[in-house]
Amino acid sequence: MKSLRGAHPYEEIAYYAVPLENAWQDAGSGMLGTLEKPIQGEYFPVYVKECLKADVVRFTRPVEWVKKVAICGGSGAFLIKNALQSGADAYITGDVKYHEFFDAESRMMICDPGHYETEQFTVELFAEILSEKFPNFATRFSHTYTNPIQYHY
After folding, report:
1. Is 26 helix (H, G, I), strand (E, B) or coil?
2. Which of 109, 106, 105 lies closest to 93, judged by CA?
């Protein structure tokens, strides 16, 4: 406050403070869920690839069975430790770097099908949410494919 008063040319300082606390403590960047039926770990990356229509899936050594799954669309490596603490058997996210795969500590499988691949279905979700919340407004979403990454097989 001293610096503010020293730099301010008026007697009364005009400022606006924005609280940074999270009012929605139950909301976050990722989700945790349970599969209806467990999947053998060695088949889980294939399941992820098919569900997300991904070209490839990078993954760590499989756990024996996958039942509890954590997911964060886009670039979610920052939540690997949270997924571990939640007891997840597998964590699906994009943009995982080489050394971040070691953070699973062989206790959880990490699957990285790609940034775009983990976010591609959010357009449909937002369309549904916006249409429900604002029924009198027309929603139009782009159908342009925006994944800049190409794969060679």
Report:
1. coil
2. 109
Q: Please give the Cα distance from 136 to 33 (Å, whole number).
A: 33
Nearest alpha carbon to residue 68 among 38, 27, 111:
38
Q: Is 20 helix (H, G, I), strand (E, B) or coil?
A: coil
What architecture is domain 31-118? 3-Layer(aba) Sandwich (3.40)
Query: pLDDT averaged over the chain?
Result: 90
| Domain spans in the chain, listed from the N-terminal domain onward | 31-118
The residues near 48 (Cβ < 8 Å, ≥ 6 apart) are 54, 57, 59, 92, 111, 113
Q: Strand ranges (DSSP E) for 12-150?
A: 31-40, 58-59, 65-75, 90-94, 109-112
pLDDT given at position 142: 80
Q: pLDDT digit string (tens) for 89-142? A: 999 999 999 999 999 999 999 999 999 999 998 888 888 899 899 999 888 878
